[in-house]
Design brief:
The protein is mainly alpha-helical. It has 2 domains: 81 residues, Cytochrome Bc1 Complex, Chain D, domain 2; 83 residues, Cytochrome c-like domain (Cytochrome Bc1 Complex, Chain D, domain 2, Orthogonal Bundle), CATH 1.10.760.10. The chain is 60% helix and 0% strand. α9 packs across α10 and α9 runs antiparallel to α11. The protein starts with a helix and ends with a helix.
Length: 187
């Protein structure tokens, strides 16, 4: 056994671990976000109730979703076309930019929101106690209720795939979904 070989290999490995990771560039992300603004708003807050707001979303979630759109793991022809031209650094920069922006409440029907508040406890384990998002799990607070209803229905039907979410959504009635969406949008 050649111990010199292992020492050299270990030295190379540890030096790679010590190298600084490439930090995302928020300003580059802001520049690249021009293509996103038509749907997701100029400050990451969507004006269209069917498109998600990206402001304040976790960078890990945005990165994952853009990579999923790019690979086709998440189906959306428009997003697949946009994501197809993005390099990994572009994805990181966009994610950092949107994560740096302040989110905004979409409102929500107060009466339905109160009913939905009771249902929201089941979401807190993954999405955070204020629905602010948690790593790979998205920020739900402030999303448009129509967008949330569509996503929950897509999880419920299996059109959108995510094991835990598919199971959770199947346990919700249509009224539960509407009330939960109104609550989450009011945050």
């Amino acid at each position: 056994m050649n111990h010199s070989f292992y020492k050299i290999g270990f030295s190379i490995f540890t030096s790679l671990l010590m190298m600084p990771a490439q930090a995302a560039d928020i300003n580059a992300g802001k520049t690249q976000a021009g293509a996103c603004m038509g749907c997701h708003g100029s400050a990451g807050v969507s004006n269209n109730p069917m498109w998600p707001s990206l402001a304040g979303q976790t960078s890990a979630y945005i990165e994952t979703q853009l990579k999923n759109f790019k690979s086709g793991a998440r189906a959306n022809p428009t997003m697949k076309g946009i994501a197809a031209g993005l390099k990994d650094a572009d994805i990181q920069n966009l994610a950092a930019y949107y994560a740096s922006l302040p989110g905004k409440s979409a409102g929500g029907d107060a009466k339905s929101a109160q009913i939905g508040k009771d249902k929201a406890a089941m979401c807190m384990g993954c999405h955070g106690n204020t629905m602010q998002g948690n790593g790979q799990f998205p920020k739900l607070a402030g999303q448009h209720p129509q967008y949330l209803v569509k996503q929950l229905n897509d999880f419920k039907s299996g059109e959108r795939k995510s094991g835990p979410m598919n199971g959770m959504a199947k346990s919700l009635s249509d009224d539960d979904i509407k009330a939960l969406a109104e609550y989450l949008s009011s945050l």
